[in-house]
């Protein structure tokens, strides 16, 4: 089964992102707006139990996670993905590193660029039009997040929460 690890921002940020995603993101119906910490990976039941235990340990040692969204950006020319830029910070960087070492070993598929995707799979002409308009907009959100989530993928391609991990040593919800 496929799993992934993400942070879901507040409803306010999700509503803002979804106002664009419903038009521009082919994955709109599959997963809410999120910041990917670990891209999809395969795991069996035994490995999953060990990972959940390790994720609890990591969460207990992770302080609340500051999130600062500052602008629209893009991965062009690598891909026609448009996203909300999440400013990197030490807490996000350390969390990402921990999720790619030890039990979670393996080099990340991509360089870690914290972001919330709002558009993908756009034809080049549409991408250029949409991005040229969005990059002119002022965007500013700041918040602190107190949890991250282990997700699993359903047969229809959508993602759902398997377990939630509260940072700062609190128990899971």
Write up this protein:
- This protein has 173 residues and is an alpha+beta fold.
- It has a single domain, classed as Cyclic phosphodiesterase (Cyclic Phosphodiesterase, Chain: A), CATH 3.90.1140.
- Helix content is 29%, strand content 31%.
- The strands form two sheets. It has a four-stranded antiparallel sheet with strand order 2-1-7-8.
- The chain is globular and about 45 Å long.
- 32% of the residues are buried.
List keywords for this structure.
single chain; 173 residues; alpha+beta; Cyclic Phosphodiesterase, Chain: A; 4-stranded antiparallel beta sheet; 8 strands; globular; 2H_phosphoesterase_YjcG-like; hydrolase activity; YjcG
Order of helices and strands: EHEHEEHEHEEE
Q: How many beta strands in the DSSP annotation?
A: 8
Structural category is alpha+beta
Strand percent estimate: 25-35%
Query: What is the CATH homologous superfamily assignment?
Result: Cyclic phosphodiesterase
- The coarse overall form would be globular
Poorly predicted sequence stretches spanning 5 or more consecutive residues: none
Write down the CATH topology: Cyclic Phosphodiesterase, Chain: A
Biggest sheet, spatial arrangement of strands = 2-1-7-8
Proper CATH architecture: Alpha-Beta Complex
Main β-sheet description: 4 strands, antiparallel
What is the CATH class? Answer: Alpha Beta
Helix content: 25-40%
Number of discrete helical segments: 4
**Number of domains in the coordinates?**
1
Round the Cα radius of gyration to an integer and report it: 16 Å
| Overall average residue pLDDT | 93
How far do the termini sit from each other? 23 Å
